[in-house]
Write a structure and sequence with these properties.
- By secondary structure, this protein is α+β, with helices and mostly antiparallel strands.
- It is built from 22 helices and 13 strands.
- A seven-stranded mixed β-sheet has the order 3-4-5-2-1-8-9. A two-stranded antiparallel sheet has the order 6-7.
- It is elongated, with a radius of gyration of 29 Å.
Length: 492
């Protein structure tokens, strides 16, 4: 079945197609022992099984992992009967949507019954109906590059919508019309942006046009599903590509309106840098500072990337035109932190993630008070204490926030931050700064002052912590004397 949308683009070369096919053969040989074994069991039970969707796409790209997606004419209860004796573990989380999950050796497997999904105009959840043929299943898929299958164990390649050609051309198209596809599931508009960011593909003009015209349909999709797609986009290798597409189609105005709002009007009398473009550069520079995947805790960092993306969202609300012609954004970090909390809460992020990202947004300007390195040791201690476990991310965010083209200014900022990190390291060696505690704990305070638990102990503890931050560690005798002095003042 030809793809009606394929007439307008140049067909990929035979070489590109053959390279993709060779990569696929290599990848499929690697997973064959497990995939073929499972397929034989389905065949013996009278059903068919095919590797499908993202698994076929990734095999053709030479990046198939250990997550395998299959489709079958067997209904979910029949799938359970086949996989339970075979798999190491089975889960039924997605069974209402026709999907059975299982684990075999090192592979995580999902088997989904041929299906179609459609929304009605008021529902937030897809309605699932089962199909009877793989062709019917594939036409309901989101994009042609995800509408290919390999029937097993025969290894028959099924590509009714020319997905292989689109894959070689690195373009995202829909099997039918994009309007039909996005009506079936409006979240597919977000997926277009996500796949563009993940795969570094272009989105076909007719798909972009449909995304723009149907953006409002995204409102019926649950916040959780939108958030999950946004996370995948932000954690991708090319998030700028996806975010730009969201902004240009109007989808960002529904999902993350603070992003397009950064496109502030500029005029020749009040010059300031393009905050929207600055934000995307900060995001890319933060990505460059992430630890490699093979390092402990390495790889894409959602907290850091969200903080980079949201760090300046308070600027539109705080913009002021000064008499001297400058533009100011006083306290935009405080306003931005509140806006970050509100937006992330609306998108149903976890409380911990909201707290961490909001804190980074609030602290991202703190370093600029460091000036020429004249902070006292107590100011450095407070910087570390306020950042807490986010200190390493704050270092990366602060460094990423320098996008000036003035090399002298950029180098001066970098040297200043180098100096601050060196001072932090020295103080940490001297004082174990990350675990700052007063020189006297609560029990000692009660014993010295001869009083029981109560608010006065909390006040005394806070006072001793301030002394610790201001002056560094104290000998016990000096700490006791300082506590008694404070207590005498309270009694006076």
């Amino acid at each position: 079945m030809p793809n009606a949308n394929n007439d307008s683009h140049t067909p990929p070369s035979t070489t590109e197609l053959s390279q993709a096919q060779r990569r696929a053969v290599s990848e499929l040989l690697r997973v064959s022992p497990v995939a073929d074994d499972l397929a034989r069991r389905f065949k013996e039970a009278g059903f068919t099984l095919a590797l499908v969707g993202g698994s076929v796409r990734d095999a053709l790209l030479g990046r198939l992992g250990n997550d395998l997606d299959f489709t079958t004419d067997a209904r979910p209860q029949d799938v359970l009967k086949i996989v339970r004796p075979w798999a190491d573990a089975v889960w039924e989380v997605g069974i209402a949507f026709g999907t059975v999950g299982c684990r075999k050796s090192d592979f995580d497997i999902e088997v989904t019954t041929y299906r179609s999904e459609a929304y009605d105009r008021t529902s937030r959840k897809p309605e699932v109906s089962y199909g009877d043929s793989i062709e019917e299943d594939l036409v309901r898929r989101d994009f042609t590059v995800n509408a290919m299958a390999v029937a097993l164990p025969e290894k028959e390649f099924i590509d009714p919508h020319n997905g292989l050609e689109d894959l070689a051309a690195r373009v995202l198209r829909t099997p039918g019309t994009p309007e039909e596809s996005f009506s079936d599931d409006p979240l597919r508009m977000m997926r277009a942006a996500r796949f563009a960011a993940q795969l570094d593909f272009e989105v076909a003009p007719e798909v972009v046009a449909a995304m723009t015209g149907m953006a409002d349909r995204l409102e019926i999709v649950s916040a959780e599903r939108v958030r999950d797609e946004l996370n995948k986009l932000i954690l991708s290798s090319h998030p700028r590509k996806g975010l730009t597409l969201l902004a240009e189609t109007g989808l960002a105005a529904l999902v993350l309106p603070e992003l397009p709002a950064l496109r502030l009007e500029r005029d020749e009398h009040h010059r300031h840098k393009d905050v929207y473009e600055h934000t995307l550069i900060v995001l890319e520079q933060a990505m460059a500072l992430e630890a490699p995947r093979d390092h402990p805790g390495g790889g894409p960092d959602l907290v850091l990337r969200l903080a980079a993306l949201l760090h300046d969202i308070g600027k539109p609300k705080t913009r002021r035109f000064e008499k001297d012609g400058r533009v100011s954004f006083h306290h935009h970090e405080v306003v931005g932190a509140k806006m970050t909390k509100a937006r992330m809460t609306k998108l149903k992020y976890s409380n911990d993630l909201v707290k961490d990202v909001s804190k980074l947004v609030e602290l991202h300007l703190r370093f600029h008070g460091y000036g020429t390195g004249e902070w006292t040791d107590s100011a450095v201690r407070r910087y570390v204490r306020d950042a807490g476990p986010l200190l390493d991310r704050l270092h990366k965010l602060t460094r990423s926030d320098c996008t000036t083209r003035n090399k002298r200014k950029a180098n001066a900022l970098s040297r200043a931050y180098d100096g601050l990190e060196e001072r932090i390291a020295r103080l940490q060696e001297q004082e174990e700064l990350d675990a700052i505690r007063p020189d006297l704990d609560g029990n000692e305070i009660m014993e010295i002052l001869a009083i029981g638990p109560g608010p006065q102990i909390g006040q005394a503890y806070k006072h001793m912590l301030e002394l610790r931050l201001e002056h560094g560690p104290m000998e016990r005798e000096a700490a006791v004397a300082a506590l008694k002095e404070w207590w005498a003042e309270q009694q006076g």
